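Example record

Each entry pairs one chain with its bound ligand, NAP.
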Amino acid sequence: MVDVPDSPVALITGASRGIGRGIALELAALGTHDLVVNYAGNETAARECQAMCREAFGSGKDRRVEIIQGDISKADDRERLIGHVESEFGRLDLLVNNAGIAPDVRADILEATEASFDRLIGVNLKGPYFLTQRAARLMMRSTPLEKTPRAVVSVTSISAFTASINRGDYCVAKAGLAMMTKLFAARLASEGINVYEIQPGVIATDMTGAVKEKYDKLFADGLTPINRWGQPSDVGKTVAAVAMGHFPYSTGQVFEVDGGFHLHRL
Ligand SMILES: NC(=O)c1ccc[n+]([C@@H]2O[C@H](COP(=O)([O-])OP(=O)(O)OC[C@H]3O[C@@H](n4cnc5c(N)ncnc54)[C@H](OP(=O)(O)O)[C@@H]3O)[C@@H](O)[C@H]2O)c1
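Structure tokens for the complex follow.
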């Protein structure tokens, strides 16, 4: 293990692009944490995110940002990821379970395949579940830093409670991830680690790029009270608020970052 630094460390999964990159950039702008940017395969995007974070840190801030490849659905990769954070930084203060995938094909629930179900559960639920287990153990081994909260944040979706019958596998995985937040919140409170869930609405990223026209039309028809596409920075600012320690007496909390999508209106 290297010397324990006096700055906190945040690991963000799936941070090369989209929402994860937005989270990394907001944390970099905050300037409090060293950052570990995980990605699955797009090294170019990860390096771009690294460069943008360095710029956001600004001069005068002696912070590190590292990129690391790892498929969170694979046990060996999860071990390597946490091992790397421990050997390079000696501690972990914030885990953001952001990495996630949509089904390759939006198939009716009566037709959708087991292969797609297994893939979605592997990346969107099993991966963060066991990564959180390992990350929590590392957090518990890390000497707490004064004024720095220790926390886990998982990015679920409005799909955790909204039935989309052409991507049941995605909805089921996100609903499971919502329960995972409650479980780890209950378990880790006594360890001084708070656990939160963010439910984004429709956010402009590569994931929604394929269905942009559909959502453009829904927004035009008044889909959400705050009637615009969500941006990765909208989610990033919520994570930054957690990283700042603004919710010390809240755990298991769900943050709806959805422009008010969840409101029932009459
Ligand atoms: N966009 C939305 O409207 C929306 C709404 C609600 C919730 N969400 C959730 O927000 C999260 C991010 O979504 P996004 O829209 O930003 O997606 P995105 O633009 O497709 O980016 C996905 C990110 O996850 C990484 N990734 C994919 N599979 C991975 C794996 N097995 N292991 C590690 N990293 C992996 C990708 O890495 P590479 O670049 O290397 O491929 C990339 O950084 C997901 O959990 C998604 O379900 C999105």
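The chain has one domain: 9-257.
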